[in-house]
Specification:
Length: 434
């Protein structure tokens, strides 16, 4: 991963806004609030035919506590894979002692460092911006990420430094969804075999949807560690509202959702609400029950019985019991992810789909409308990312929802789909191939 750039600096100097502008995304939350970014958020910047990966690291805080110390440690350790470090300071704050401390640590690394003096749009006239040259970094850019000042020059410079490397790789997007403290970040750490995400027994440690590239047996994925979804009835802060919003957006844009349950807590009302969110988005998903190492055999059997009933409303989703902390059943989890990914993006021949339709109609014919039976003749898979089947026939607009549901379940069974929803579109148009 030589084509990596890390953005490093104190809290609230504008790192996340700069990240969003460079990657042309809104992956990092941007608010006037210290310590909003805690984990490592990864995006990419297209330069010609190549791609440069950019890391938005957690802001290095002034105040030391359990979480802040982990944030600082994670920020420093993550830059080792980087070719370039963008060290961001704030022109409005001036040069602080903490900037000196961060700079000394970064200069010990064998990486090229570019100093980014941000917020030049609000710099006081009497302040001498040249003070930042005291840090001893030769290459300096004065920018305003908010106003886009100096960004084009910075992008051109990054393009000149980094090797242009074409990338045609397709990454499947996998989001980890669940309540706070269910073990989402720990699961990703175990998958990566590296403590990449910040984990803690403090609920709400993750507040943004963090993107991490991952490859397993030649399958390329982007893992998203999302903020835990809390109950609506609880009073929530502005940061929590943005976190939940980011999680919901991730569900909509992901390919596969991993719905993680806490084995110690069992199935709660909030878990059912989260499942409804996933199902409403019509996404493929599997259910992962974490922390099974905390349960005795009798309690685990009781939980499995409860989940067996719960699975009746989950589109026949796969249920996997794991301990992310103890690395139990992780290989089976990864294999299931690969299997689902294959099924989601598989293209089916229209002839094969039509044969299944004919079998379904033969076993249970559509109803009669005014003494004339509805005829379903042909099936075609849509070219969209989700599994959408277009069924052509006569009087399809009069087909009852119950029969449409029957067809959907029939296709799921015959195509052996597990946790993969199907969209059915009915069309009165003629067979497009005749």
């Amino acid at each position: 991963m030589e084509n990596f750039i890390s953005i490093v600096g104190r809290t609230n100097v504008g790192k996340s806004l700069l990240f969003n502008k460079l990657t042309k995304s809104r992956k990092s939350l941007v608010l006037d609030h210290d310590g909003l970014t805690r984990d490592i958020n990864i995006g990419s910047m297209k330069l010609g035919n190549g791609i440069i990966h950019i890391q938005d690291t957690g802001g290095i805080p002034l105040v030391e506590d359990k979480i802040n110390n982990m944030v600082a440690e994670k920020s420093y350790s993550s830059v080792h894979i980087s070719k370039i470090i963008l060290f961001v300071v704030s022109a409005s704050d001036g040069l602080l002692n903490q900037d000196y401390d961060i700079c000394k640590k970064l200069q010990k690394l064998r990486c090229k460092i570019i100093l980014i003096v941000n917020k030049c749009d609000i710099t006081k006239k009497e302040y001498n911006i040249n003070d930042f040259y005291k840090l001893g970094i030769n290459e300096v850019f004065h920018i305003s990420a908010k106003d886009n000042t100096g960004l084009s020059e910075l992008q051109q410079r990054l393009s000149d430094i980094a090797e242009n490397e074409s990338s045609q790789n397709i990454f499947r997007r996998i989001s980890i969804i669940g309540k706070p403290n269910a073990g989402k970040s720990t699961l990703i750490n175990t998958i990566l075999k590296d403590s990449r995400m910040i984990t803690s027994d403090i609920a709400g440690t993750t507040i943004d949807s963090i993107e991490v590239p991952f490859i397993y047996k030649e399958n390329q994925f982007l893992l998203y560690d999302t903020a835990g979804i809390i109950r609506k009835s609880k009073a929530i802060s502005l940061v929590q509202k943005y976190s939940i919003s980011a999680t919901l957006k991730t569900i909509k844009t992901t390919d596969i959702c991993v719905f993680i349950l806490d084995a110690e807590q069992g199935i709660t009302k909030q878990d059912k609400n989260i499942l409804n969110l996933i199902q409403d988005s019509n996404k493929a998903f599997l259910i992962v029950v974490n922390k099974i190492d905390k349960l005795s055999k009798p309690l685990l059997l009781e939980l499995k019985r409860e989940l067996h009933y719960f699975s009746n409303i989950t589109d026949n989703a796969e249920i996997i019991y794991i301990s992310a902390l103890k690395n139990q059943n992780i290989k089976r989890f990864l294999k299931t992810i690969c299997d689902i990914s294959y099924s989601v993006f598989k293209r089916y021949k229209s002839s094969d789909l039509t044969k299944i339709l004919e079998q379904a109609v033969s076993e249970h014919p559509p109803p009669m409308i005014k003494n004339k039976r509805i005829k379903l003749k042909f099936v075609q898979q849509s070219k969209t990312d989700s599994l959408k089947l277009i069924i052509y026939g006569n009087q399809t607009d009069k087909l009852p929802l119950t029969y449409e549901k029957y067809l959907k379940n029939y296709f799921i069974d015959k195509l052996q789909l597990v946790g993969i929803p199907i969209k059915i579109k009915l069309s009165k148009e003629k067979n497009p191939f005749k």
